Amino acid sequence: MSIDLNKYKNIHMVGIGGISMSGLAEILFKEGFNVSGCDIKSSNITEKLKRDGIIVYLGHDPSHVTGADLIVHTAAVKNDNPEILKAKELGIPIIDRAELLGSLMKNYNYGIAVAGCHGKTTTTSMLAITMQQAELDPTILLGGEIDDIGGNVRIGNSPYFLTEACEYYDSFLKFYPYIAIVLNIDSDHLDYFKDINQIKESFLKFISLVPDSGYIIACNDNEHVRDILKRVKDRNIITYGINWPSHYTAQNITFNSNGYPEFDVFYNGQNLGKFKLSVPGQHNVYNALATIAASITIGINMDIVKKAIKDFRGTHRRFEYKGNINGISVIDDYAHHPTEIKATLKAALNYPHKRIVCVFQPHTFSRTKALLNEFSQAFDCADHVIITDIYAAREKDNGIVNSKMLVDLLRQRGIDAEYVKTFDEVVNSLRQKATKGDIIMTMGAGDIYKVGEMYLDSYKTKNIEQKIS
């Protein structure tokens, strides 16, 4: 179901500070809508929206919806939100973020939706840069930020709309993809999905949204993806992989001194040449294959694809280099699922280092509880692991699971692990234990990135104090 946005002029967005909501707000604003919004706290995102001319309120108050003729909210906003209650009282239509995104996508001939439990932001960003360099002038909406487009949104003037497609709350079932890319299927968001079978059914419904003339591009190396592809009829299916026979395959994979992959790409047995990446890890070879398959499908020249993929330097919070102090490198990554943690730490093995010191902040109690055993097996590539308190996000602590339980399981497996409660204490521990040649890697979808910044700043502050004294 989609709505006719032409019927509305004044749109109020509850939870406008979210990465996707803020991007949608910018698109609406530049298309001539009067946009306002609110969030619980100020951030770089809300400040940018204000500078752009969008009205942003802090906190939630019924008066904020006055004058609005359409309300958009995030999945995190509950029915008892005072602005939602007021909108219902006034009879103002209410939709969620996914329905708005789907309605916008419907206005474009070629909606490209990148789905998967891991790698969405990186793959969408890589494809965004490729489409830009091919001068396709796409409209782009990311779940992260890249310097190439100056943030997470780009307003284009063409039939192409590129976006991430999140499975949480079945959001992507409200989209209208001409090309659906499925990177992988894994157990996650088990506070919403019952099990992996329900997740697979959701992805099957998603790719079934593709019209007969459209394309499904999917990773054949993922068993759950292969399972759902068997059930798809009368669609153009393009597969890619490394280990499983596919239309596009990567072979002869090597890593340079920075851990960046180089590999040959074959299409139906024909060698398309050597591709080089400027981001580390085999998981990014998969992301590149998805990008290559999509780019060629929409007719982008091979030389442009090769150059764009090599030019891609990653998104913020994806293996993001934060700095080096005393020969110790600080890297931050958004990894918050066991599969992502394994892939990121494996990538770090190819990065110059003496030891890997990983600081992990679990994200949500439900995920930590459901995947506790998997988390305990995800840190084998790290030399020392520090676990902080669980980042609650949208949840409340019910006391069933905590970070110390994960530390205990790690220690049982022989992993050098410790629980450290506060960020200040983590920084102190790092200052005592990290030595020249180490990598400090902060991981998680919460605010753990602050630890790396605090660690680097602690030395800058000390140096300033020494100079003053």
Automatic annotation (TrEMBL):
Domain spans labelled Mur ligase central: 114-294
Cross-referenced InterPro entries: Mur-like_cat_sf, Mur_ligase_C, Mur_ligase_C_dom_sf, Mur_ligase_cen, Mur_ligase_N, MurCDEF_pg_biosynth, UDP-N-AcMur_Ala_ligase_MurC
Pfam families: Mur_ligase, Mur_ligase_C, Mur_ligase_M
Pathway: Cell wall biogenesis; peptidoglycan biosynthesis
GO cellular component, one term: cytoplasm
Domain of life: Bacteria
UniProt-listed Gene3D superfamilies: Mur ligase, C-terminal domain, Mur-like, catalytic domain, NAD(P)-binding Rossmann-like Domain
Keywords: ATP-binding, Cell cycle, Cell division, Cell shape, Cell wall biogenesis/degradation, Cytoplasm, Ligase, Nucleotide-binding, Peptidoglycan synthesis
Function statement: Cell wall formation.
Protein's name according to its UniProt entry: UDP-N-acetylmuramate--L-alanine ligase
